[in-house]
Each structure stands twice: as C-alpha cells, then as structure tokens.
Amino acid sequence: MTTRFAPSPTGLLHLGHAYAAMFARDLAHSQGGAFLLRYEDIDGTRVRDEYYLDIERDLAWLGIQWDGTPLRQTDRLTDYAMAINLLKARGVVYPCFCTRREIQEEIQAMDGAPQGPEGPLYPGTCRNLSPEQRQHRIDAGEPHCWRLDTMAAAEQTGPLSFTDRIQGKIDVDPSLLGDVILARKDIATSYHIAVVVDDAMQEISDVTRGEDLLASTHVHRLLQELLGLPEPIYHHHRLILDAEGKRLAKRDKALSIQTLRERGASPEEVLQMVQP
Question: Which residues form the domain of 54?
C-alpha cells in the first residue's frame, strides 16, 4: 500500500492538514506500506518558497514522517503536457476562450443554467465552435484554456465507477462538474490532470483526501480511463470544521499548526484535537 499527503505550499498547515496527513500515514503504516509527501505547487501566484520548509517543519514536529524525497508538481509539467496531448488526440478536450466575466454573464442570461455541487457550471459556450473557428482563434494568439468535453469522454469510456472505503461503490456521473478546465491559460495543467498523472507515476494504491473532493473523483476516473492509468482505492474522510461548522482555510491563522505550537501546545495535544 502507498498513500500520499499533497498540500499546496500557499500557506501554513492547519488542523485539517494535520488530520489528513495523519490519516494517510496511519493507513499506509497499518499495512506496512509507504507514505509519500507531494507538493501541489502549480499555483505560481500564491506559492512561496518558505512554505515548503514550513510544511516539512510542521510535519516533523507532529511526528509525521514521510518516505523518500517530496515530489514537486512544478518538476512534472512535461508529463502533464503529454497527458493533455493524449486527450487532444482522442478528441475529448477543446479550447475555451471565455473570460470569467463572459461565463458569468452567459450563466445569468440562461434560463436554468447547469448546476454543480458548488454552484453554476460552465455553460459549454466554446464546445460549439467549429474546428476552423477554434484554430483561427488559436493562430491569432487568443488566450485560452483547455476543457474536458465530458460527454465525448463518457461516450468513449462507457459507464464507470470507483470504490470508496468509507462510502462504498459510487457510479461516475460525468456531468457532475461539467466541462472542467484541464489546462489553464497561465499554466498548461490543472489540479485534475496533475493529480491523476502523479498518483499513477507514484503508484499510489490508496488516495486519501477530504470528502469535499468527492465530486472531483468523478472527473479523475474519466481521466484515468482515457489515459490508461490505474484506478486506486479512495478514502474520502471527514473534514475538520471550525466552531461555526465551516471547513478550515489557510486564512484561519489562529488554527495553524505554527500558531498552536507558539502558544505552547504539544504535538500530542494538537493531534488529539483532530481525533475522531
């Protein structure tokens, strides 16, 4: 068994991260497996060098030790580009030239805009462009991202499902998140592409993450099937919430591991805070 903890070096770790790291480590070690550390650092506007060190310092202080050398996604951009090119060859992605404002305006003008778990979905504007129109705009240098054509993808894969050790077998709903972005305008990848490519490369057998990412797994199963990648077992665990019942965020500095340590809490006391 191999698991991983994959934080983004865009802020300090909080109690939710401590629980996620502990969950992944304990699962791997219960089977004599490996626990890996991966940095999801493709968000170049928010990543800071000091956060890599802060993450490793906090994990070490908590007594959560990883195996091997941490992986940085920014070292893997060529691999992600290869995956995008494979999807282009299969005809399951398309360039999208819409700005956020244009998308918002179209959604507001629609009667019954498509909805996802977290709000309105992309309405599919650029999916309807002809190949000639797409190429003309690309040749003109118009900024664009690449989106997954979920219906075209589902037609190629057929019905899919995945196994979640906490919630059981779940049938994939290709339309759940709509035509998600797979390669952004600013960097030719996305969370969705990077995570499935890295999980396969690192031979992650069990993906552990918060239940807020359950919807993303529907996309990931599509991508795994399209790219010929192995299907891991999933464990979508509970989230650590604040006093108001909201998911913890990095902006909540009062609950960061660093703040708790500076206030005199011991590693054992911090881990006890997130025990079931």
Answer: 1-73+241-276
